[in-house]
Write a structure and sequence with these properties.
349 residues, 32% strand, 18 strands, 33% helix, alpha+beta, three-stranded mixed beta sheet, 13-stranded mixed beta sheet
Length: 349
Amino acid sequence: MPDINDIETYIVRYLHKEITEEELHMLDSWLQETPENMNEFIRLKVAHDMIRGHRLMSDEEIEWRWQKMMRKTTDKAVSPPTSDSPKRKIRQSRLLQYAAAAMIAVMVSFGAGNYFGKHARRAAEIRPVTYNEISVPKGGKPNAVHLSDGSVVRLNAATTLRYPSDFEGDMREVYLDGEAYFEVAKNEEKPFTVRLKQQHITVHGTSFNVEAYHNDSYAIVTLQEGSVSLESMDQNGLETNHLSLTPGQQAHFDRITGKMSVTQVDTSLSNTWMNGEYKFKNEPLMLIFKRLEKYYDITVHLEDEKLKNICYTGTFSLRQNIRDVLRVINHENQFRFQQTGNEIHIKSK
């Protein structure tokens, strides 16, 4: 696991094109940790290029070039390093000192007036982005978040959304872990991107539901209005698929294989949770119980393998207690259950 000095060394070696493949993977893991890490990297890359007389690249181009380099490597990416708050503050301080020194050197070489006249807009674009974070706990009620561009995001239980206070520059970008329904304000000149684990969703103005919990092996995107494009990556961060959805389509992403499949569905079933209901049509019992765990803050132990893929259709109110819900699902009397606190054991009859 790299320490803070290693990360700084990797960045310098990357800027001087001396980085090894192993170091590249370690640096990539750090960049994927938080948006702030990528922001710091972009600032340093911009400052470095200005000093060397290179043309300025946009944040998106820098990130695109980074992903392109990563796709050329074949080794497995290492696990992201963890860091506590004091370490992060030290890292930010040192990297900002490096960036500040670079900017001063540019100002001296070009002249302060010329620098601010030519690069003031770019400097504003690369200032750090402040992110807010809102979470709905397991068993919690849906919560609506109004973004600065007029978009609205409704969060389901066990869901976390990270979003900027203001969308600056030419991109709108948020991070989601869990399930949410998006109503995105249309802006053709400023695309809206939802970043998930191993997947990105890009839209201009549309309504869609996303189910993408980090500890699930799948993610589901259901489009109600407009259009979206999806990019998926495998566990090594290599792009595996790129496709677009039209209204009424649902994309199912397998995080293990990196493959996506698209089907035509009844989109109204995907977001009934916003109205306090759960409707399911021909869904396997295993998937139903996964959702119930989040809605009711319980742990379900499905103790008979043959029950997992039995499909059910039904509707119930999320205001009902879990025992009533289980009775609704088990109307054909195929299993029995025992509840102890928040633990529920399911067995065949």
